[in-house]
Design goal:
The structure is a single chain. By secondary structure, the chain is an alpha+beta fold. 40% of the residues lie in helices and 19% in strands. A five-stranded mixed sheet has the order 2-1-3-4-5, covered by helices on one side. The structure holds zinc ion (2 copies).
Protein backbone atom coordinates (compact mmCIF):
# COMPACT_ATOMS: atom_id res chain seq x y z
CA UNK A 1 0.00 0.00 0.00
CA UNK A 2 1.46 3.40 -0.86
CA UNK A 3 1.78 6.11 1.79
CA UNK A 4 -1.27 8.13 0.72
CA UNK A 5 -3.52 5.06 0.57
CA UNK A 6 -2.26 3.98 3.99
CA UNK A 7 -3.04 7.39 5.48
CA UNK A 8 -6.49 7.34 3.90
CA UNK A 9 -7.15 3.88 5.33
CA UNK A 10 -6.13 5.05 8.79
CA UNK A 11 -8.46 8.02 8.45
CA UNK A 12 -11.32 5.64 7.61
CA UNK A 13 -10.50 3.36 10.54
CA UNK A 14 -10.47 6.37 12.90
CA UNK A 15 -13.84 7.52 11.53
CA UNK A 16 -15.42 4.05 11.69
CA UNK A 17 -13.91 2.99 15.01
CA UNK A 18 -12.45 -0.40 14.10
CA UNK A 19 -10.80 -2.45 11.36
CA UNK A 20 -13.26 -4.83 9.71
CA UNK A 21 -13.82 -6.53 6.35
CA UNK A 22 -16.89 -4.36 5.74
CA UNK A 23 -14.87 -1.16 6.04
CA UNK A 24 -12.27 -2.62 3.69
CA UNK A 25 -15.00 -3.36 1.11
CA UNK A 26 -16.12 0.27 1.08
CA UNK A 27 -12.53 1.47 1.05
CA UNK A 28 -11.49 -0.62 -1.95
CA UNK A 29 -14.68 0.28 -3.83
CA UNK A 30 -13.82 3.96 -3.28
CA UNK A 31 -10.20 3.38 -4.38
CA UNK A 32 -11.45 1.87 -7.63
CA UNK A 33 -13.62 4.95 -8.16
CA UNK A 34 -10.74 7.31 -7.38
CA UNK A 35 -8.67 5.68 -10.10
CA UNK A 36 -11.55 5.79 -12.59
CA UNK A 37 -12.85 9.31 -11.97
CA UNK A 38 -10.41 11.18 -14.26
CA UNK A 39 -11.20 8.92 -17.24
CA UNK A 40 -14.97 8.82 -17.03
CA UNK A 41 -15.80 11.69 -19.35
CA UNK A 42 -14.13 13.91 -21.92
CA UNK A 43 -13.61 16.77 -19.50
CA UNK A 44 -11.02 16.49 -16.76
CA UNK A 45 -12.49 15.54 -13.40
CA UNK A 46 -13.47 18.60 -11.36
CA UNK A 47 -12.66 17.55 -7.80
CA UNK A 48 -14.09 20.83 -6.48
CA UNK A 49 -17.56 19.83 -7.64
CA UNK A 50 -16.81 16.35 -6.44
CA UNK A 51 -19.00 13.30 -6.58
CA UNK A 52 -22.26 11.89 -5.33
CA UNK A 53 -22.01 8.48 -3.71
CA UNK A 54 -24.91 6.06 -4.01
CA UNK A 55 -24.69 3.22 -1.51
CA UNK A 56 -26.94 0.14 -1.69
CA UNK A 57 -26.40 -0.92 1.91
CA UNK A 58 -25.99 0.75 5.27
CA UNK A 59 -23.15 -1.44 6.56
CA UNK A 60 -19.59 -0.64 7.69
CA UNK A 61 -18.29 0.08 4.18
CA UNK A 62 -20.40 3.22 3.87
CA UNK A 63 -18.25 4.85 6.55
CA UNK A 64 -15.19 4.54 4.31
CA UNK A 65 -17.12 6.22 1.50
CA UNK A 66 -18.18 9.02 3.84
CA UNK A 67 -14.69 9.57 5.20
CA UNK A 68 -12.92 9.46 1.83
CA UNK A 69 -15.31 11.55 -0.24
CA UNK A 70 -16.83 13.59 2.54
CA UNK A 71 -20.16 12.24 1.30
CA UNK A 72 -22.87 13.02 3.81
CA UNK A 73 -26.67 13.13 3.89
CA UNK A 74 -26.51 16.75 5.00
CA UNK A 75 -24.69 17.84 1.87
CA UNK A 76 -26.91 15.77 -0.37
CA UNK A 77 -23.94 13.91 -1.85
CA UNK A 78 -24.76 10.59 -0.20
CA UNK A 79 -27.74 8.59 -1.41
CA UNK A 80 -28.88 5.44 0.33
CA UNK A 81 -30.82 2.71 -1.43
CA UNK A 82 -31.91 0.01 0.97
CA UNK A 83 -31.07 -2.93 -1.31
CA UNK A 84 -28.88 -4.98 1.03
CA UNK A 85 -26.18 -5.24 -1.64
CA UNK A 86 -22.48 -4.47 -1.45
CA UNK A 87 -22.75 -2.08 -4.37
CA UNK A 88 -21.41 1.45 -4.42
CA UNK A 89 -21.73 3.98 -7.23
CA UNK A 90 -19.75 7.17 -7.54
CA UNK A 91 -21.08 9.85 -9.88
CA UNK A 92 -19.22 12.96 -11.01
CA UNK A 93 -21.38 15.98 -10.22
CA UNK A 94 -20.10 17.88 -13.26
CA UNK A 95 -21.48 15.51 -15.91
CA UNK A 96 -23.22 12.55 -14.29
CA UNK A 97 -20.58 10.07 -15.46
CA UNK A 98 -19.74 7.53 -12.84
CA UNK A 99 -18.66 4.06 -11.91
CA UNK A 100 -20.64 1.29 -10.26
CA UNK A 101 -18.58 -1.06 -8.10
CA UNK A 102 -19.98 -4.38 -6.84
CA UNK A 103 -18.48 -6.95 -4.52
CA UNK A 104 -18.37 -10.30 -6.31
CA UNK A 105 -20.73 -12.94 -4.95
CA UNK A 106 -18.92 -15.25 -2.57
CA UNK A 107 -15.83 -13.03 -2.45
CA UNK A 108 -16.09 -12.73 1.31
CA UNK A 109 -16.83 -16.37 2.07
CA UNK A 110 -14.76 -17.77 4.88
CA UNK A 111 -16.43 -20.65 6.68
CA UNK A 112 -14.29 -20.53 9.80
CA UNK A 113 -14.80 -16.77 10.19
CA UNK A 114 -18.54 -17.17 9.73
CA UNK A 115 -18.80 -20.06 12.21
CA UNK A 116 -16.84 -18.12 14.81
CA UNK A 117 -19.02 -15.05 14.27
CA UNK A 118 -22.14 -17.08 14.99
CA UNK A 119 -20.58 -18.52 18.16
CA UNK A 120 -19.52 -15.07 19.29
CA UNK A 121 -22.98 -13.62 18.69
CA UNK A 122 -24.56 -16.44 20.64
CA UNK A 123 -22.15 -15.76 23.50
CA UNK A 124 -20.85 -19.33 23.13
CA UNK A 125 -17.27 -18.55 21.99
CA UNK A 126 -14.32 -19.41 24.23
CA UNK A 127 -11.59 -16.82 24.78
CA UNK A 128 -9.39 -18.63 22.26
CA UNK A 129 -12.20 -18.68 19.69
CA UNK A 130 -12.90 -15.03 20.23
CA UNK A 131 -9.21 -14.22 19.70
CA UNK A 132 -9.17 -16.37 16.59
CA UNK A 133 -12.22 -14.54 15.26
CA UNK A 134 -10.67 -11.09 15.65
CA UNK A 135 -7.41 -12.28 14.14
CA UNK A 136 -9.26 -13.63 11.10
CA UNK A 137 -11.38 -10.49 10.98
CA UNK A 138 -8.24 -8.42 10.63
CA UNK A 139 -6.54 -10.83 8.21
CA UNK A 140 -9.54 -10.80 5.87
CA UNK A 141 -9.60 -7.00 6.00
CA UNK A 142 -5.90 -6.74 5.16
CA UNK A 143 -6.25 -9.30 2.37
CA UNK A 144 -9.08 -7.25 0.84
CA UNK A 145 -6.90 -4.16 0.94
CA UNK A 146 -3.84 -5.79 -0.55
CA UNK A 147 -5.30 -8.12 -3.18
CA UNK A 148 -5.76 -6.87 -6.75
CA UNK A 149 -9.22 -5.23 -6.75
CA UNK A 150 -10.49 -7.46 -9.57
CA UNK A 151 -10.14 -10.47 -7.26
CA UNK A 152 -13.09 -9.30 -5.17
CA UNK A 153 -14.86 -6.63 -7.21
CA UNK A 154 -16.30 -5.94 -10.62
CA UNK A 155 -17.10 -2.48 -11.92
CA UNK A 156 -18.45 -0.67 -14.94
CA UNK A 157 -18.98 2.86 -16.13
CA UNK A 158 -22.47 4.31 -15.74
CA UNK A 159 -24.30 7.56 -16.39
CA UNK A 160 -26.71 8.95 -13.88
CA UNK A 161 -29.02 11.92 -14.05
CA UNK A 162 -28.43 13.87 -10.88
CA UNK A 163 -31.24 16.07 -9.58
CA UNK A 164 -30.66 19.67 -10.61
CA UNK A 165 -30.44 22.47 -8.08
CA UNK A 166 -31.57 22.46 -4.46
CA UNK A 167 -34.82 20.68 -3.77
CA UNK A 168 -37.80 22.69 -2.57
CA UNK A 169 -39.45 20.85 0.25
CA UNK A 170 -42.44 22.67 1.68
CA UNK A 171 -43.43 21.62 5.18
CA UNK A 172 -46.99 20.69 6.09
CA UNK A 173 -48.47 19.95 9.50
CA UNK A 174 -49.35 16.40 10.54
CA UNK A 175 -52.92 16.34 11.84
CA UNK A 176 -52.12 13.53 14.26
CA UNK A 177 -49.02 14.74 16.12
CA UNK A 178 -49.02 18.41 15.11
CA UNK A 179 -45.39 18.28 13.98
CA UNK A 180 -44.14 19.56 10.66
CA UNK A 181 -43.28 17.09 7.89
CA UNK A 182 -41.90 17.43 4.36
CA UNK A 183 -44.89 17.53 2.03
CA UNK A 184 -43.30 14.83 -0.16
CA UNK A 185 -43.28 12.41 2.77
CA UNK A 186 -46.74 13.18 4.08
CA UNK A 187 -49.62 10.76 3.51
CA UNK A 188 -53.35 10.95 4.07
CA UNK A 189 -55.08 8.81 6.71
CA UNK A 190 -58.75 9.27 7.67
CA UNK A 191 -58.81 12.17 5.22
CA UNK A 192 -56.16 14.00 7.23
CA UNK A 193 -52.48 14.75 6.62
CA UNK A 194 -50.28 12.24 8.43
CA UNK A 195 -46.49 12.10 8.85
CA UNK A 196 -44.78 8.72 8.22
CA UNK A 197 -44.25 8.24 11.96
CA UNK A 198 -47.98 8.59 12.64
CA UNK A 199 -48.79 6.44 9.60
CA UNK A 200 -46.69 3.66 11.14
CA UNK A 201 -48.50 3.94 14.45
CA UNK A 202 -51.85 4.15 12.68
CA UNK A 203 -51.16 1.07 10.57
CA UNK A 204 -50.03 -1.02 13.53
CA UNK A 205 -53.12 0.06 15.50
CA UNK A 206 -55.34 -0.94 12.57
CA UNK A 207 -53.55 -4.28 12.44
CA UNK A 208 -54.25 -4.85 16.12
CA UNK A 209 -57.89 -3.81 15.74
CA UNK A 210 -58.34 -6.19 12.82
CA UNK A 211 -57.25 -9.24 14.80
ZN1 LIG B 1 -17.13 -2.34 10.95
ZN1 LIG C 1 -47.41 12.87 12.95
Amino acid sequence: MDEQVKMDWERCVAFHGHVCPGLAIGFVAAQIALKMLPDLGDEPYDSKRGIVSIVQNDACGVDAVQALFSSTFGKGNLMFKDHGKHVFSFIRRQDGHGVRVALKYGAMDNERHQALRVKLMEGAATTAESEEFYKLHEEISIHLLEAPPEEHFEWRKISFELPKGPKLNPTVQCAFCGEGVMEQRARVRDGRIACPECVEKYESRVLVLNK
